[in-house]
Design goal:
alpha/beta; five-stranded parallel sheet; four-stranded parallel sheet; 25 helices; Nadp-dependent malic enzyme; metal-binding; malate dehydrogenase (decarboxylating) (NADP+) activity; metal ion binding
C-alpha cells in the first residue's frame, strides 16, 4: 500500500510521518493542499481504511439508520449515526411520505435521484414496491423535463460521458468505470430525446432512467448496468447559448466523423466487456438509428426499441398475423398502413421513400393527411409513434369510431384483433366486444401524446379502448369510469434484457422481440379486458418480466444464439432466481 501513496519528504513516505500540530491546532498540511495556489497542482489523495464514514457514503452498501448494533460496532459507525435503528420498511414509509409532499413531479425526480446516489437498495425497494406511482417520475413523462433541465439540476455524474474529445481513447474511458462486469448498456447521442428533440449531452437522463428500470422491473443487478451518453455536439440553439449546458458547445458532428466515433465506441465495448454485453441504442435520430442497427446487429448484441417499435411495430404485427394465420408475410403486411408527414405511404411514393418505409407502400390513391387516411382505409387500430402531439384530432377519432361499428366489423373482420385477444381466456365474448376501436397514443412525454385519454373516450362516446405511452388518470364519462392502459416499453425491455442475459445470447433477432410481446400478451386476463385494458397492471411487472425473460431465452436457445449451456429446465424459475432483490444484506 505504501508504494501506492509514495510521496517522499526528507526520505520518508507520507504514511510514516507523524501528525504535527500547527499554529491553529490542526494537523500539518502534509500534502500541500492548503498552501497550494490556484496554479499549483495537488494530488487528490484517497485510500480505503476500515472507516464507517466511507461506508455511509457508498450507495451500494449504505443502509442509513438500518445498520444494526453489531454492524455499527464492526464497521466503526458508532457516533456517526443517531442511536435509533429503523427497519427498511419504516425507512421506505418515511421516504414515500416525504416524496408525496412534493407537488411538482421534477422535485420528486430529484429526490429519488438523490436517494439512488446515497442508498441504492432503498431506492430500488421504493421503486419496486410503489412502481405504479413512481414509474411516471423516474421514467416518462417526468424524465423528459429532467433532461430539459439536466444542466441546472446536475449534481454528480451518473454513467459515462464519451465526447469527441475522447476520440482515440474510448477504451481507456470505459476502463475508468469502476465496475468490470457489465451486462447491459443503454447509450444515447441525445439527438431525439422522447418527443422533445435534440437535448445533446443532457439526454443522459434517459439511459440512467432506463437502466433503473432494467434493475427494478427486470432484476438486472445495478452494478452490471452502464448508462452512456455520446456527445457529438447539439443543434439546439437554446442549449448552445445556455451557460449551464453541460455538453460540447458545438454543432453536431455528422458523416465520417460521427460514424468513426461510434465505430470506435462499439469496438471498445466489445473488447472491454465481451461478446455478450447488451447494448440498447436509445433516442438516436432516425437517420442514424437505422444505420447503426443495420451495421451492428450482426456483430453485437444490440437492439433499438425506438425503431424496432416504430416501423418495427408494423413488422412485428405482420409477423404475428402471419404466424397465426399461416399467410405469407408479404400478404399480412398489406393489412397495415403507415402515415408519415406527407400522408399515406403508397406505392406511387416509393422512389422518394426511405428504405425502411418501402415495404409498407401499398397500392392506393395518394392521401395527404391522417383524417383522409382513416376515412379511406377504415382501420381497426390507430397507433401513433411519431413523437408529434395532438395528431389524433376530434375528427380523426370520430372517423375511426364510425368505421368500427358492429355492422362494419361483421362484414369485414380484421386480423389485428388476434394480437390482443391472444388466448382462450382473452377472446371477445361477443361481436359487441369487437366494435370498439383501439387507440394507442404512444408518443412521449405527455405533451407529445397524439391525444389524451379523456379526448379518446369522449370523442368515441366511450367506445374506444385506449392506451398511451405516458400515463393518464382514469376518466369519468357518461356515468362510467374508464381506466386507460399505459402502452409503455417498460413492459418489455427489462424482461427482454434479462432473457438475453440469462441465456447468454450473442445476437438479437426479431423473433425474440415477438416472443417478448407474446409473453406479455399471455399475462393479460379477462378481468383486464372487462375494464377496457389491453395490458396487465404494472403492479405485477416483476412476474411479467420473468415470463418475458423465459420466452426470450427459449427463443434464443431455439435460434442457436444462446451460449449458457446446458439450457435450464424451467426458464421462468431460472429468471426469477437471477433477479436482483433490494432487501438489505447483513454485514459481517
Amino acid at each position: 500500500m505504501e508504494s501506492t501513496f509514495k510521496e517522499i519528504r526528507d526520505g520518508q513516505s507520507v504514511l510514516d510521518l507523524d501528525p504535527k500540530s500547527t499554529v491553529g491546532g490542526g494537523v500539518e498540511d502534509v500534502y500541500g493542499e492548503d498552501r497550494a495556489t490556484e496554479d499549483k497542482l495537488v494530488t487528490p489523495w484517497t485510500f480505503s481504511v476500515a472507516s464507517g464514514y466511507s461506508l455511509l457514503r457508498d450507495p451500494q452498501y449504505n443502509k442509513g439508520l438500518a445498520f444494526t448494533e453489531k454492524e455499527r460496532d464492526a464497521h466503526y459507525l458508532r457516533g456517526l449515526l443517531p442511536p435509533i435503528i429503523l427497519s427498511q420498511q419504516l425507512q421506505e414509509k418515511k421516504l414515500m411520505q416525504n416524496i408525496r409532499q412534493y407537488q411538482v413531479p421534477l422535485q420528486k425526480y430529484i429526490s429519488l435521484m438523490e436517494l439512488q446516489e446515497r442508498n441504492e437498495r432503498l431506492f430500488y425497494k421504493l421503486l419496486i414496491d410503489n412502481v405504479e406511482e413512481l414509474l411516471p417520475v423516474v421514467y416518462t413523462p417526468t424524465v423528459g423535463e429532467a433532461c430539459q433541465k439536466y444542466g441546472s439540476i446536475f449534481k454528480r455524474p451518473q454513467g459515462l460521458y464519451i465526447s469527441l474529445k475522447e476520440k482515440g481513447k474510448i477504451l481507456e474511458v470505459l476502463k475508468n468505470w469502476p465496475e468490470r462486469t457489465i451486462q447491459a448498456i443503454v447509450v444515447t447521442d441525445g439527438e431525439r430525446i422522447l418527443g422533445l428533440g435534440d437535448l445533446g449531452c443532457q439526454g443522459m437522463g434517459i439511459p440512467v432512467g432506463k437502466l433503473s428500470l432494467y434493475t427494478a422491473l427486470g432484476g438486472v443487478r445495478p452494478s452490471a448496468c452502464l448508462p452512456i451518453t455520446i456527445d457529438v455536439g447539439t443543434n439546439n440553439e437554446q442549449l448552445l447559448k445556455d451557460e449551464f449546458y453541460i455538453g460540447l458547445r458545438q454543432r453536431r458532428a455528422t458523416g465520417k466523423e460521427y460514424y468513426e466515433l461510434l465505430h470506435e465506441f462499439m469496438s471498445a465495448v466489445k473488447q472491454n466487456y465481451g461478446e455478450k454485453v447488451l447494448i440498447q441504442f436509445e433516442d438516436f435520430a432516425n437517420h442514424n438509428a437505422f444505420e447503426l442497427l443495420a451495421e451492428y446487429r450482426t456483430t453485437h448484441l444490440v437492439f433499438n426499441d425506438d425503431i424496432q417499435a416504430g416501423t418495427g411495430i408494423a413488422e412485428l404485427i405482420a409477423l404475428e398475423i402471419s404466424k397465426q394465420t399461416k399467410a405469407p408475410l408479404e400478404e399480412t403486411r398489406k393489412k397495415i398502413w403507415l402515415v408519415d408527414s406527407k400522408g399515406l405511404i403508397v406505392s406511387s411514393r416509393k422512389d422518394s421513400l426511405q428504405n425502411f418505409k418501402k415495404p409498407w407502400a401499398h397500392e392506393h390513391e395518394p392521401v395527404k393527411d391522417l383524417l383522409g387516411a382513416v376515412k379511406a382505409i377504415k382501420p381497426t387500430v390507430l397507433i401513433g409513434s411519431s413523437g408529434v402531439g395532438k395528431t389524433f384530432t376530434k375528427e380523426v377519432v370520430e372517423a375511426l369510431a364510425s368505421c368500427n361499428d358492429v355492422h362494419t366489423l361483421s362484414q369485414n373482420p380484421v386480423y389485428i384483433f388476434k394480437l390482443y385477444f391472444h388466448k382462450e381466456k382473452a377472446k371477445p365474448n361477443s361481436i359487441n366486444d369487437m366494435q370498439k376501436p383501439i387507440i394507442m397514443a404512444l408518443s412521449n412525454p405527455t405533451s407529445q401524446s397524439e391525444c389524451t385519454a379523456e379526448e379518446a373516450y369522449t370523442w368515441s362516446k366511450g367506445r374506444a379502448i385506449f392506451a398511451s405511452g405516458s400515463p393518464f388518470d382514469p376518466v369519468e364519462y357518461d356515468g362510467k369510469t374508464y381506466v386507460p392502459g399505459q402502452s409503455n416499453n417498460a413492459y418489455i425491455f427489462p424482461g427482454f434484457g434479462l432473457g438475453l442475459i440469462i441465456s447468454g445470447a450473442i445476437r438479437v433477432h426479431d423473433e425474440m422481440l415477438l416472443a417478448a410481446s407474446e409473453a406479455l400478451a399471455s399475462q393479460v386476463t379477462k378481468e383486464n379486458f372487462d375494464k377496457g385494458m389491453i395490458y396487465p397492471r404494472f403492479s405485477t411487472i416483476r412476474k411479467i418480466s420473468a415470463h418475458i425473460a423465459a420466452n426470450v431465452a427459449a427463443k434464443a436457445y431455439e435460434l442457436g444464439v444462446a451460449t449458457r449451456l446446458p439450457r435450464p429446465k424451467d426458464l421462468v424459475k431460472c429468471a426469477e432466481s437471477c433477479m436482483y432483490t433490494p432487501v438489505y444484506r447483513n454485514y459481517r
